[in-house]
Each structure stands twice: as structure tokens, then as C-alpha cells.
Amino acid sequence: MNGDQMMRAHSATLPAPQFDNPAWVTPAALADARVAIVTSAALYAVGDEAFTSGDTGYRFIDRDRRDLVLGHWSPNFDQMGVKMDLNVVYPIDRLEELAGQGIIGSVAPRHVSFAGNQPDDVSTIRLDTGPSAAARLRQDGVDVVILTPV
């Protein structure tokens, strides 16, 4: 069994939270929507605080920053694609193009990065830092996020 197969087999055994009454909001039409990226690549800007093992916090990334560090440290993750093109995990240039073409309304002024290596229950992110980041994105007028799991 290779590493990918082992990770898939392990992931299949992890509990997933169940929500009795999940919230649902109908977003604005994409042509009018402000869009942000939420990634679990543990990206942070040069000079900002790096992610640490078990870090349940988040970092904001200003829209114009491209000097980002990939803090995702799993040995099962091939970083070559990201080194060649940041858009693999943080599709900011593609969002800028979509906004320029009028396909989306606008690109958010900042985006959110979490570390993907979390405790199995992800309770801190689910109950604390996730809602905190979402509230701050809403303050920025964000209607829709693109999730890029890493």
C-alpha cells in the first residue's frame, strides 16, 4: 500500500461532524459577488508569523501579496506544483482574471489561510477560529469563498 492509499484508508475512519440544521445562505450572483479564498495550505506572507504544529489559528493574506510561504509540512504533499505556480493552492491570479472579465463581481481585499494538519475533531476551527475568520470576511463584504484544501 502506498502513502496515498494509507492516508485515504486512515481518513475514511475519522469521524465527521453532523449538523442537524446546517445554515444555508443563498449568495449573490457571481457577477455581483465579492470572492475570497480560504486555504488550508498554511500560507503566510514573508515576515508574518509562521504556522506551528497543531496551530488552529489563521492568517490573513492581503490581496496584493505574492511573497507567500507554504507552511504545509506533510511528507505526503508534493510541494513542486506550488513552487512552480502558487495558484495551485491559492488561485489569486485566476480570481483577478475572473474579476477582470466580469465573471465575478470583485476579489476580496484579503484572504484566509489555515493549517491543514488539525486534530481529528477540528472543534477549535469549527467553533472558534473558523467563525471568527468568516465574520471578518463578512465585514470585508465577502459573499462567496473558494475553499482550497491542501
Description:
It is a single chain. By secondary structure, the chain is α/β, with parallel strands linked by helices. It has one domain. Helices cover 27% and strands 19% of the residues. It has four helices and seven strands; from the N terminus they run H-E-E-E-E-H-H-E-E-H-E. It has helices spanning 3-11, 80-84, 92-100, 123-139, and strands spanning 34-39, 43-45, 58-62, 68-70, 106-107, 110-114, 144-148. Strands 1, 3, 5, 6 and 7 form a five-stranded mixed beta sheet that branches. The chain has a two-stranded antiparallel ribbon with strand order 2-4. The protein is globular, with a radius of gyration of 16 Å. It starts with a helix and ends with a strand. The model has no long low-confidence stretch (mean pLDDT 88).
